[in-house]
Structure prediction request, 310 residues.
Amino acid sequence: MGRILHSIDRLPPPLVFADERTTLIPRGESLYIPNRGIPHRGIKLLYFLQADLQMHIGGASPIRIRTGDILVVPRRVMQVYRPAGNTDSLHHTLRILIGATPPGFDPLIESALEDIHHLPDGMTPRHHELINRLRSELDDRPPGHRFAIGGICLDLAVNTLRCIHKSATSADSGDPAGAAAELHIRRVKEFLLENYEKPLRLEDIAWSVRLSREYLATLFHKVTGLTVFDYLLQLRVEAAKSHLCDTSLTIHQIAALSGFTSDSLFCRTFKRVTGVTPSAYRRRTLQEAGFEPALRYQPNRLSLVSAEEA
Prediction:
C-alpha cells in the first residue's frame, strides 16, 4: 500500500514531477514497479528517508537499500522491492522524475543520468536542507511555488550528480580558508544529523569537530546565518514531520525520537515553528495523502525480466 504525502506536477522542464511517499511492503511480498506504460516515463532520482530493503533492478544482483541512500534509475528499468528481513517493511521516499533533457543540456550530466547509480549513505546535510525547503514549499504552496520547487529539485539533482562524480568540494579549491570553514561546517552538520535525537551541548558539538565552542558559534553563524541550536531545532522539527507520517507512533514516542526532552516542549516548539500542533499536522498530512495505483504486490516467485523488456 502506498501513501503519497506530497505531490506536485507540471514542474519546469526537464523536470516532470516530485512526490514524497511512504510504502508498506508486507512480509513475504514484493513491490513490483514495471516502469512501462507510465506517462512521461523518465529518469528517477530516489532519496530514501527511511528504508531497509532488498531491491532487484533490471536483471542485476539485489541491492541493499537503507536509510540515507540515493538511487538514480534510468528510463525503462524494472524495479522490485522486498523486505530485507522477515518483517513488514515501511519505506519513506522522495522521488523526482526527470523527463527529456533539452538540446544543449550538459553532456556529462546527461550521461550520468543514463546509468544506474546507488549511493549508500549518499544523502549529505545539503540534501537534507534542500528536502526541508522542498517540504516547506509543498506545505505552504506560496505564489510561484512550482518555480521554487523546480529550482530546489534541480539543486538536489545537481548535488547528487556531483556526488557521483566525486566533485562536490572542487568548486572551493581556490580558497583554502573558505574551504576549511566549509569543511568544519559540513562536519558539524553531519554530527548534528547523526545525533539530533540526543541531548547536546555546544561543548559536545564543538568537541566533535575539535573546535572551541566560541569559535564554532561564531563560524557557524557567519557561514549559515543561523546559530548552531537554530539549525539543530530545524533538524528536530523535520525529523518529527517524518515520524508523524507513521500513524503507529505516539506523540510521546515522536518527541523522544526527534530529540525533545518532553511532550509539552515538543508540542510548543512544533507549533511555534510550523504554525500547527503535531496532531493537526498529522491529520492534515493524512487527509491530503493519496494512493498510487500503479504499485502492486507480487509473490516472491516473481521472475525478473531484463531492463530491455521492462
The first strand starts at residue 2 and ends at 9. The chain has two domains: 2-165, 175-288.
